[in-house]
Amino acid sequence: MNKNDSRLASSCIALLAAGIASTGLAEEVSFSRDIRPLLSDRCFACHGPDEQERQATLRLDQADGPEGAYRTELGIVGITPGSVDDSEVWLRIISDDEDQMMPPPEAHQKPLSDEEKRLIRQWIEAGAPYEDFWAFVPPQRPQLPAVKNGNWSRQEIDLFVLRKLESLGLEPSIEADKRTLIRRVTLDLTGLPPTREEVHTFLNDESAAAYEHLVDRLLDREQYGEHMARYWLDLVRFADTNGMH
Q1: What is the pLDDT of residue 28?
Q2: pTM of the prediction?
């Protein structure tokens, strides 16, 4: 790790400030990122993998198969790649008829917003491509993106952040001073501010690997493990447990 890692954090904050909605307009719709979460939240209870609860012999978690989204029954196609007008799922999504609309009112599901409908429409018109769940897809090293300011960072991962920044007309944050760096990384890794002695040690370290040495010291501290464990405890709702978890 080096100083450029702090640039990544600053850049990510800048991306969030620019607004998540704006990113969706500039990118292709991804089934795994954009569509599967919507279908899982609103549709899979009745049209998902649970065959005991499945309705109308239609499952939307897969494309092919006798009950898959692409299947045709009595001349009606669940999802027709490339055509929303020929996709019964889409016609049910936009329907105002309570006997036809999906999700149905009796399901007590939150209605799809206009933005969520736009994503589904864009996905269908793009061919309704399904993707395997990310955990089952072998990772592949992507090609590095072309950027204007290629000398901004030595970290390859930063180039992906920079590409998004440039597409939004944003400039990367300037490199932070050493006092700011140690405060950021210490709070990030331990949840605590640096001590005065730690600040002086870092400021007096003029070696090219000063930042790496700082990070190594922080990773060796017990407070690092405690801080990481807090995220897990929050995830499993440790404070809300009734003893059954």
Answers
A1: 84
A2: 0.56
